[in-house]
Amino acid sequence: MARLLAKRSNSVLFLGNFRPEQRHCRWLNNEGRVSVEATVGGKKTTISSGKFACLADGAVVVKSGNTSLMVTAVSSTSPSSTYTILPLTVNYRERASAVHGITKNFYKKESELHPSSKEILASRLIDRSIRPLFSPGYAYDTQIISSLLEDDGLSHTGVMSINGASAALTLSDIPWNGPVAAVHVGIINGTFVSNMLSKEVLDSPLNLIISCNKEKIVMLEGYGNEISEEVICNAVQFGIKEVQSLLEVIGSLKDHSKKPLRDVELIKPSDAVKYKVHQ
């Protein structure tokens, strides 16, 4: 028994000291781990990195209440040979285990199931929030995956995924003109509120999601029940103010990342293409 314990101890010691510069062993110690938090609308959002998906270019876990999800960002190091538009793929997936459930479909593997309408809409929210911030001519295949880990049914997972994607890209060496942050704005008892609970959405005449950086609005999506233009403008201004603290903590993640931005070659349209476009 003593011999077995000695072998086990040696193995653990070996792994813990095995080329610490290699990212696949980084989870064995606290090197590279970082955690930041911000409070928006009275709800604390925590963004942590360095524990999971260490082989991704950027990966974070976003937690709000008892809802958490992991977002990873990966981009190719060589340009796409079939480049026409920005080759960005965004996937948001909800696992049955996140709500303490088991898949009841014929296909037991969740990867074989088609995404639900909620997953498709959440993926589009993320895409429209980050796509405009890539430089024109960026021809490198890029993938953002948001996986729901646990869900208490109270937080907007689409908004959390936008913030997670922004944080993952900020931590990575992928060239990107971020960060961006998102907030969910509504009206309760005549007062603007941010990051509403799911049950409060039913009582709000306005349901608005705002994505912005420090300079401008990037994406707006929502609906309202006979909302005036003035109220919409005030809601947007309220959301921009609310999201500033989150923008600051996401931007601070770059200080913890030791990876310089990779050198990329931006593809410029030829004169023939420009001529056809202007015709």
TrEMBL record:
Q: Which residues form the Exoribonuclease phosphorolytic domain?
A: 44-175, 178-241
GO MF entries: 3'-5'-RNA exonuclease activity; polyribonucleotide nucleotidyltransferase activity; RNA binding
EC identifiers of the protein: 2.7.7.8
Q: What class of enzyme is it?
A: transferase
The family database entries (Gene3D superfamilies) matched by this protein are listed as: GHMP Kinase, N-terminal domain
* Protein name per UniProt: polyribonucleotide nucleotidyltransferase
The text of the family note is: Belongs to the polyribonucleotide nucleotidyltransferase family.
Any one GO biological process: mitochondrial RNA 3'-end processing
Record key words, sorted: Nucleotidyltransferase, RNA-binding, Transferase
InterPro entries in UniProt: ExoRNase_PH_dom1, ExoRNase_PH_dom2, ExoRNase_PH_dom2_sf, PNPase, PNPase/RNase_PH_dom_sf, Ribosomal_Su5_D2-typ_SF
Q: Which GO terms describe its cellular component?
A: cytosol; mitochondrion
